[in-house]
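Propose amino acids for all 156 sites.
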């Protein structure tokens, strides 16, 4: 008598997954400092209200460059579809993330205690990307709009 298990068909596997709720994050919200959290919280709140799964991480392009590169390189493989990146001052984070991932990146220029010209420093850093490496840029401190744009990209 054979104890071999019956072969599992692809259809059976698909049926098994039908009932599973997939709750891995679709949007990654990253920011350059803990001090950015109050401003970036508006993005998380908007995604929560829309029922869009997301994750929030603090990582600085200048202070933690390896962490940022690793996060961005693995993002697509982990199932993320859009990345929202907020930063102030020289605001390299959105651009560095975009350099390491094919996913759409939405940059949020932030004001901070050392900002000049009301956040114009971060706005220009994020918007003025070189050809071939785009970052979508919302208004200064407009994290909520970044979440609305992410929802539109996801068609959610
Ligand atoms: C940027 O420098 C951060 O995104 C933040 O907006 C600003 C100030 O950072 P902290 O000195 O408060 O950590 O990199």
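Proposal:
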């Amino acid at each position: 008598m054979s104890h071999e298990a019956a072969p599992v068909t692809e259809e059976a596997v698909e049926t098994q997954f039908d009932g599973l709720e997939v709750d891995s994050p679709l949007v990654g919200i990253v920011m350059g400092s803990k001090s950015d959290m109050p401003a970036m919280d508006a993005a998380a709140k908007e995604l929560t209200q829309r029922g869009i799964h997301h994750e929030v991480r603090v990582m600085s392009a200048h202070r933690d460059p390896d962490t940022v590169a690793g996060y961005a390189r693995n993002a697509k493989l982990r199932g993320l579809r859009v990345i929202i990146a907020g930063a102030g001052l020289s605001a390299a984070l959105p651009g560095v993330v975009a350099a390491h991932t094919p996913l759409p990146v939405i940059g949020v220029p932030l004001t901070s205690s050392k900002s000049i010209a009301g956040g114009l420093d971060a706005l220009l850093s994020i918007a003025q990307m070189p050809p071939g490496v785009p970052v979508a840029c919302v208004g200064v401190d407009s994290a909520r709009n970044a979440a609305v744009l992410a929802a539109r990209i996801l068609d959610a």
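The chain has a mean pLDDT of 91. Helices lie at 10-18, 37-49, 65-75, 93-100, 120-127, 143-154.
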